[in-house]
Design a protein that fits this description.
This protein is 78% helix and 0% strand. By secondary structure, the protein is an all-alpha fold. Helix 1 crosses helix 12, helix 2 packs antiparallel against helix 8 and helix 5 runs antiparallel to helix 13. The longest helix is centred in the last third of the chain and has 36 residues. The two termini are 30 Å apart.
Length: 463
């Protein structure tokens, strides 16, 4: 009974995260209007959360071992709830971005620490079944998020997309303190604090530099300095990892070809797939003038396409192999993102829904195959490090994708602001540009071995 309660507890935390991630995008235009900002420059709200999560993921395992999963999971939920309250009370964009950082600290720990608690509570032969149960709410959250976000914005206010986290989170905090294992702290192990600082500084520097290109107040000199220091920090981390006995991520991990290719492919492919959920609501609301609820409801087509194709991923990879699937699908993904730029006010709604449905399916195939090929050759202790590294790269790529999309969008808007309907033109051009950039992933996946046909792992949540 206690183990079943643990599964429900971790599943609720996963649901809160996935719901929050998808419910926010539909509300961005309304949030911009309320805070007196341009709807084309709201990407910092998404970047702040994703970047914070990416930055802290490498430390979550050590923190959970040091202080115990119950304490850390409870603290994670409390921080997520606190961040939600601060977001709901935000009087300005800057305050909102800071509140999203607080949310991101909680979100970074919630799922990894919850997964760790389940791993310790269940024997290996039952772990896959337990994780499959936890993954179900992760699929329900994106299904409800866009429409629920649009409904709350249209019939209440955007503040309620954050207030709804509070009662669920409070119950979760109580349940975590009561049902999480009480004494599972592990013997202390070394933590690479220097490596963590260098890696975090590098990710923050590069991401903020990309976000600064959108014209959020940073001068070009500051953007250049951030980019140089970010790249230098990442280079310094690599040199540090080569000589320290206990690095965050051992350089030996990168001797595995599938991991190297999978991580780099994730980084480039997610520049487009991570930007699309940010751009699509803007296109539907700012470009086409749809209401928040109408736009959110239409985005369900993406989710349905994703869920239907997800079941086909295993059979497709088994038949054609990872290399062919990822090369072809990366091209299709880039072209489909570019095709979303063809959306215009006179277009039939059924055609827009079909475009979103197809994009959702292609995106789902990409996620499933990329996640699987990255981890398929990881064994023993390297599996845990590889999983953490993949999670970090996923969130970093999403942060960078949204930041790049925001910068491109701002550039086109500045270029055409004297023309009538410049916002729609800027959105259309941004989709095409991001789609072209996504094609770069094809070059990365061409480095895979042609005969790799092992089926994707079914127990890893998509995304």
């Amino acid at each position: 009974m206690a183990s079943e309660r643990l599964l429900w507890l971790v599943a609720v935390g996963f649901f809160m995260q996935t719901l929050d991630a998808t419910i926010l995008n539909t509300a961005l235009p309304s949030m911009a209007a309320s805070l007196g900002e341009s709807p084309l420059q709201m990407q910092s709200v998404i970047v702040a959360y994703a970047l914070t999560t990416a930055m802290l993921i490498p430390a979550t395992g050590w923190v959970a071992d040091r202080f115990g999963t119950r304490r850390i999971y409870t603290a994670a939920m409390a921080l997520f709830v606190l961040g939600s309250v601060l977001c709901a009370l935000a009087p300005s964009l800057q305050f909102l971005v800071g509140a999203r950082v607080v949310q991101g600290v909680g979100g970074a720990m919630m799922l990894p620490v919850g997964r760790l608690a389940v791993l310790r509570a269940y024997p290996r032969d039952a772990f896959i079944r337990a994780m499959s149960f936890i993954a179900i709410p992760g699929q329900v959250g994106p299904l409800l998020g866009p429409a629920l976000g649009g409904w709350l914005v249209e019939y209440a206010s955007w503040h309620w997309i954050f207030w709804i986290n509070v009662p669920v989170g409070v119950v979760g905090i109580w349940a975590a303190w009561r049902w999480m294992p009480k004494s599972d702290a592990q013997p202390p192990r070394p933590f690479d604090g220097v490596g963590f600082s260098l890696l975090a500084t590098g990710m923050v520097g590069v991401s903020l530099a990309l976000d600064g290109l959108s014209g959020i107040g940073m001068g070009r000199a500051l953007v250049t300095v951030l980019l140089v220091f970010g790249m230098a920090s990442l280079a310094a981390y690599w040199l540090h990892a080569l000589r320290t006995p206990t690095p965050l991520f051992a350089p030996a991990l990168f001797q595995v070809r599938s991991l190297r290719v999978g991580l780099m492919g994730n980084l480039f492919a997610r520049l487009g797939s991570g930007a699309a959920p940010f751009l699509v609501p803007l296109m539907l609301q700012v470009g086409l003038g749809l209401s928040p609820f109408h736009a959110g409801s239409m985005m369900l087509a993406m989710v349905i396409g994703s869920m239907l194709v997800k079941r086909m991923a295993v059979r497709t990879v088994l038949r054609y192999g990872y290399k062919r699937v990822l090369q072809v699908n990366s091209v299709l993904l880039g072209l489909m993102i570019a095709c979303l730029g063809w959306i215009h006010p006179g277009q039939p709604m059924w055609l827009i829904l079909l475009q979103l449905f197809i994009f959702g399916g292609i995106n789902s195939m990409q996620f499933s195959a990329m996640n699987s090929v990255t981890l398929k050759d990881m064994t023993g202790e390297s599996a845990s490090s590889g999983n953490s590294l993949l999670s970090m790269v996923q969130m970093l790529a999403m942060s960078m994708g949204v930041a790049v999309a925001g910068a491109v969008l701002a550039s086109y808007a500045d270029l055409w602001q004297a023309r009538e309907g410049y916002k729609l033109l800027a959105l259309q051009a941004t989709f095409v540009t991001v789609g072209v950039m996504t094609l770069a992933a094809t070059l990365v996946f061409s480095q895979l071995d042609a005969d790799e046909r092992i089926a994707p792992t079914p127990d890893r949540p998509e995304g």
